[in-house]
Amino acid sequence: MSERRLKLTVAYDGTCYHGFQTQEDPALPTIQDELVRAIRVLTGEEAKVNCAGRTDAGVHARGQVVDFVTASRIPDDRFPFAMNTLLPSDIAVVAAKTVPSEFHSRFGALGKHYRYTIYNHRIPSPFHRRYSHQVFPPLRFEAMAAAAQCFVGTHDFRGFCATGTPVKDFVRTVYRCDLTRQEEHRLVLDVMGNGFLYNMIRIIAGTLIDVGKGKIAPEEIPAIIASRDRTRAGTTAPPQGLCLMKVWHDPLDFPFNVK
């Protein structure tokens, strides 16, 4: 039976999982483990599942992309329904598509869109606690929005990734970094770029929160980026506010001009 490479778009609530990637301790639940298990039950195959972004424990996704090789003859349009009968209720396959054999979710990604949500009110919300970082002191929204624009462009983001991140190239391009107010107490940070370092979005969010608290002035952000010094940036915001919204692979669908 001939094989094909299948691309899945996956949404999940990451609250109860130790990230996307399989952990050394098999007792720790991960998104990847659940997908592999469901594919095994559905097709009888032990799939090697690639992903576009290895989200951390507690991080969510609306548009995670994974791919794997399968000999299954289940049509693309039926595959999500079949998978969703086998997955837990906090994980869902929202789309499936046969792609060229050379497709790779991670290495073929043109860009990603992450969203970080802040719930800013002196009274915590039981309904937002899983999907936002609850900040109690009033934040200066206008200062934060202005500071967010300083991250747009191509920069060495060495100061905005976790210390000890094992990469050689810290240069990334941010196409958009917009902070908007949605509903009365919800601040939403949308960041789109060609790629992101480990904890980069959460450190950007933490830095903007420090701007909102008056600890950092918006005009200091360019110097902090240029310093490449992790100690000058803000704290790493907690994982529950972060969501992987979309991953672009098709140049015709990519909304940014890349030279």
Report what the structure shows:
The chain is of the alpha+beta class and 259 residues long. It folds into two domains: 4-99, 2-Layer Sandwich (Alpha-Beta Plaits), CATH 3.30.70.580; 111-248, Pseudouridine synthase I, catalytic domain, C-terminal subdomain (Alpha-Beta Plaits). Helix content is 18%, strand content 29%. The protein has helices at residues 31-43, 79-84, 141-148, 200-212, 221-227, and strands at 4-12, 50-51, 60-70, 91-99, 111-120, 133-135, 153-156, 171-182, 186-193, 242-248. Strands 1, 2, 3, 4, 5, 6, 7, 8, 9 and 10 form a ten-stranded mixed β-sheet that branches. Helix 3 (141-148) packs antiparallel against helix 4. It holds the Pfam family PseudoU_synth_1. It catalyses: uridine(38/39/40) in tRNA = pseudouridine(38/39/40) in tRNA. It comes from Heliomicrobium undosum.
